[in-house]
Amino acid sequence: MADKTTLSQLALQLLQQLISIQSFSKEEDRTADLIDQVLQQHGVKTHRKLNNIWAWNRHFDERKPTILLNSHHDTVKPNSGYTRDPYDAKIEDGKLFGLGSNDAGGCLVSLIAVFLYYHDQENLKYNFCLATTAEEEISGVNGLELVIPDLGKLDFGIVGEPTLMNLAIAERGLMVLDCTAFGKAGHAAREEGDNAIYKALADIEWFRNYKFQKESEVFGPIKMSVTIINAGSQHNVVPATCTFTVDVRVTDAYKNEEVLEIIRRHVSCEVKPRSIRLKPSSIDKNHPFVQAGIFLGRNTYGSPTTSDQSLLDISSIKIGPGDSARSHMADEFIYVEEIGEGIELYIEMLSKIV
Questions:
Q1: In the β-sheet with 223-231, what is the strand arrangement from edge to edge?
Q2: Is pTM beyond 0.90 here?
Q3: Would you say residue 188 has pLDDT above 90?
Q4: Is the bond leading into 104 cis (omega within 30 degrees of zero)?
């Protein structure tokens, strides 16, 4: 078992190497190669599917519960506001600059260090499964979702995203609904047709005003917003169809499927979800890991943004070094000390349960 100082140095060095390699979503093959190589150099037996690398601790025992350690190594493309080379991982004034340094490179290398800390330990109460995955930034199907069936039974998940090492104990889910109201075309000058716009307006008013019976303790009510509407071809034709799009931010009080069923019961239009994959997530505030974090002075909150946590069907928490306010910004950076602190806090919290 390496000491924490050595692991912090390893994590920093690995992060600098990762930053220097372009790894846009679906183009993460070279960062996957590097992660695979580093883990194998430290005696870890790795597994790979496309650009996803995963591994279990050396003394894995199928009779024990398993903790998932997950973060991603893909990045968005650098925005036009960059004044620095996004792939030049320089450290200045305690800041490590570079694309993906904060989202989610710092979290990724910290969790890799934590996995290596526990990898060779015997007589743990839990197994560890490390999954370094792809396509998170585009909610792609060839990232974590692809390899979940290969990871075996998981009991609890830690998803590495920048939270200032505070505890995101819940995360909103997301459904985007494409809705179509059907009428009948006719001439606007005569009493003809059945105006689909008027039918859509009744449903839009329902989306605007409906209150779901259950509310989340963390987020409050589900939020539904109509964001796009389209209808008609010319001024003198009563439109036969009206389409509109609804953004639905689902809370941990419901499953996506339940929300969709309630919506379909109440509106007359056709409702087609683009996906129900991005599920709300939560963990009991009394979970030992959460309580350990609270004991160490970390705050709990609900995250309004989605991550790969939405793909998990187990209790999970989002936590990591860095600040989500820096994600996707020009001249992205993470403080070097945040990485060491992240590793330390992860291990302190896990030590209470493993």
A1: 223-231, 241-250, 173-182, 270-273
A2: no
A3: no
A4: yes
